[in-house]
Design goal:
By secondary structure, the chain is mainly alpha-helical. The chain has one domain: Ribonucleotide Reductase, subunit A. The protein contains twelve helices and five strands. The strands form two sheets. The chain has a three-stranded antiparallel β-sheet. Strands 3-4 form a two-stranded antiparallel sheet. It is globular. The protein starts with 19 loop residues before the first helix and ends with a strand. The relative contact order is 0.12. The protein binds fe (ii) ion (FE2) (2 copies).
């Protein structure tokens, strides 16, 4: 098992000290990263002590230690899951061959693009969430926000390590660029659409960590299958951290729903205006935010039919999430069906090569996973005796990428006209009014254990501490 050198300027378990040139290059990038953190990371809280977990090992028992630290002193480092001896390529045309410890020349630009695209999302989300600390509904939530932020920063480190270690000068240039693109920037935006969406309230934050971090989980799972072993090992360890981000999302939305149904019972009403006046987020608004972030995240998987996706799979570059659970790991000549718009207001079923449909295969797994939380939220609504059901819209709804891009459908996925969409979109997606209302609830609560009125307290605190623990010392 590898050990982590925590005393090093850059904590790592990749024996950085043995490669002086690489170490120097990364030590040169480090101050640029810290500058970025100070300028683009969480505003106003850099001097505060935050109760954070830090990776100190990559094995199950010892990978996280908890303690107070100011965020700029967080020990961002490079941690790869342990190397699996004799690991073989698990899918595609190179199936059964030894995995690669270096990048084959013919796949170099493909790998670089994939790593840069993944890497770009990590700091992007930190930028999107930059101001949320100012309106945190509790110290517990404030701490969770910062935990997510420092770990996204570490995920950036994970990708920058690969760029520096395996892509020479091009890789170093890409690493610089990762700090110069910014979320929502008109001239130099982040690469993917969702990561340029403004995030100015906590309902969006919870939806983002539930739906968009879950896209991250599926991308990482696919890359964790890669024949390029250092990438696979990096992603495997990132998944350990990622789980907490989705926990924050699932419990966050769950607590919003719980609080709303409590007040619905108390006041015996489902009237939106009455509930808003009482200071909670009505369930139709929760549904609209969910529909927005879910559909935005669906686009991140790419086109339903994609020759790039086929190329990644054939060449062992990127597999399917949990590749081992599929029966056929080569998929030579196999086919699948996808629904596309027929361009005349109807739906047509196309048969495509399975290899071309890998984005869609992954997206279907993702949708299944998203539904687990929705079912839990609905159970809480039902238990409270409230008659309402949250539901994920069809994956044809409000798409900007792929077979349904620019095609209007209702949330059930039935094609409709542009005029019908315009007429109804206020019932399906957040209106400026809905956003303003949610925004109006965003006030900072700083007393340990206290919660804003629109959200229920969590069931338990962090690392066996009580909910009223002082998670951030303000
Ligand atoms: Fe991440
Ligand atoms: Fe994440």
């Amino acid at each position: 098992m590898s050990t982590i050198d925590l005393q090093a300027r850059i904590p790592n378990n990749v024996n950085l000290a043995d490669n002086r040139q690489l170490q120097r290059a990364l030590e040169h990038w480090q101050p640029a990263f810290l500058n970025w953190w100070r300028e683009m990371g969480p505003s106003d809280f850099n001097a505060k002590q935050v109760y954070l977990r830090t990776a100190i090992g990559v094995d199950a028992a010892g990978w996280a230690s908890y303690g107070y630290t100011p965020m700029p002193d967080y020990r961002w480092g490079i941690f790869l899951a342990d190397r699996e001896e004799n690991r073989k390529i698990g899918f595609g045309d190179h199936m059964g061959q030894d995995v690669w410890q270096d990048v084959p020349g013919e796949y170099r630009s493909t790998f670089r693009r994939l790593i840069v695209t993944q890497g770009d999302t990590e700091p992007a989300s930190v930028e999107q969430q930059r101001l949320l600390g100012l309106t945190a509904p509790s110290l517990y939530d404030l701490r969770n926000l910062f935990q997510v932020n420092v770990e996204e920063g570490r995920h950036l480190w994970a990708m920058v390590y690969l760029l520096h270690a395996y892509f020479g000068r091009d890789g170093r240039e890409e690493a610089e660029e990762l700090l110069t693109r910014h979320s929502g920037d008109a001239d130099k935006p982040r690469i993917l659409g969702t990561f340029n969406e403004p995030m100015d309230n906590w309902l969006s934050f919870f939806m983002f960590t539930y739906f968009t971090d879950r896209d991250g989980k599926f991308q990482l799972k696919s890359l964790a299958e890669s024949a390029f072993d250092p990438l696979a090992r990096t992603c495997r360890f990132m998944l350990t951290e990622e789980a907490h981000h989705m926990f924050v999302g699932e419990t966050g939305v769950g607590r919003v729903v719980k609080r709303t149904v409590e007040v619905m019972k108390e006041l015996d009403t489902d009237d939106v205006a009455t509930l808003r006046k009482a200071g909670v987020i009505d369930l139709p608004t929760v549904q609209k935010f969910m529909s927005f972030w879910f559909t935005s995240s669906l686009d991140l998987f790419g086109s339903e039919s994609s020759s790039n996706a086929a190329n990644y799979f054939s060449n062992g570059i990127k597999g399917r999430p949990d590749e081992a659970k599929f029966a056929d790991h080569v998929e030579a000549g196999t086919e699948m069906q996808i629904d596309v718009s027929d361009g005349k207001g109807g739906v047509r079923t196309d048969t495509i090569a399975m290899r071309n449909g890998m984005n869609e295969v992954t997206r279907l797994e993702y949708v299944k996973d998203c539904n687990v939380g929705v079912t839990r939220w609905n159970m809480a609504v039902k238990r409270a005796g409230v008659d309402f059901q949250l539901a994920l819209p069809s994956s044809r709804f409000r798409r900007s990428v792929g077979a349904w891009a620019g095609q209007h459908t209702n949330p059930q996925g039935i094609p409709i006209t542009a005029a019908e969409f315009e007429l109804n979109k206020g019932q399906w997606l957040p209106t400026p009014d809905d956003i303003n209302f949610v925004q109006s609830l965003m006030h900072r609560v700083t007393e340990p254990g206290k919660m804003a009125a629109w959200i229920a307290p969590p069931d338990r605190g962090i690392n066996s501490n009580p909910v009223e623990y002082e998670y951030v010392k303000l």
